[in-house]
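Catalogue entry: protein
Contents: sequence, fold tokens
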Amino acid sequence: MSDKSKPGEAIPTPVSFATIRDQDWPIAYLRRAMERERIPSGYLFHGPHHVGKRTTALALAKALNCRDIPSGDQPPNGQPPTGARDACNTCPSCRQVEAEVHPDVETIRPDGQFIKIDQVRGVAENLSLNPFQARKRVIVLSQAERMNPQAANAFLKTLEEPPENTLIVLCVEDASRLPETIVSRCLPVQFGLLNESTVREVLARDWPLDDEALEFAVRYARGRLRPELSGKIARWIEIRDHMTQWLIAMDKPLFAQISEEVSRWGASDDWRFVLEWLEGWFRDVALLSGGVAVEKLLNQDRLDALRQCAGQWTPEQVLAHYRTVLDTRDGLWLNANKALACEAMWLGFKS
């Protein structure tokens, strides 16, 4: 978001409605709301992670508070701007939002695993004061579904009686994970996955990947610009290839011998990738067995291995393995020991 970058990295393009890719409907919807001056007190931006929800919220904050009028948008007779314009990205307000230092535009992110009640109380305290300089104060809750119950209850009070000239934007992947009392007080705006061509273009532009790594990253991203891909693709391809070999060897001694290695992955930051890749692998095996076209498969570049697994497992076994992965993932969200859970999952494939 900001103009901070490391040596050798491209400087990010300042955010505006014009720079947001593949979210034409949400952007058009928000523009119409601005044109009609019908901005609600709360929006619920829902859709997959890493497709531009928080970015769009900040672009909206810029457009609502931009101090300059881009060329061609000067209203007649000295009338105030209609709000139909995009952010100029040059005025002090736009630059402050871009750098995330605007005094009246605040982004709340999870502190660890959750958004906590102290964070929500801090928002309420700030909202009790008059805006410092903004026409429309904007509060953005990133991953709002991660509010713990106490924080959600406290936040409901803010939504029920929002201060004047304040917009609250909740960014969530799955609105059903929020209390209905919160969802019902926000106007929903749905975001979709990014086009594969967009993901490929951005990854190729920002990261030095060879062709194999780039194509794997694009398929694994599945329509999302996932920041965790940066710097980990080579390692994840290596893990993927090891697990592929071991799954083929499920009925051989090698399979049990590597459970300790899986446990080590579980104890590291790789556990999310291990679970997500296994989920995708068993899905691919089921789809391949059902006659789905190869280009629909996440691991289409490992087709021979998929066919071997499809030949050695019954559909019931594939479904059982898939459910084992999902159960493990759910357990880890409840703070189970990651190393032991991943090892137990791997050994569970044999049962």
The beta strands are 42-46, 105-108, 137-142, 166-172, 187-190. Residues 271-289 form the longest helix (19 residues).
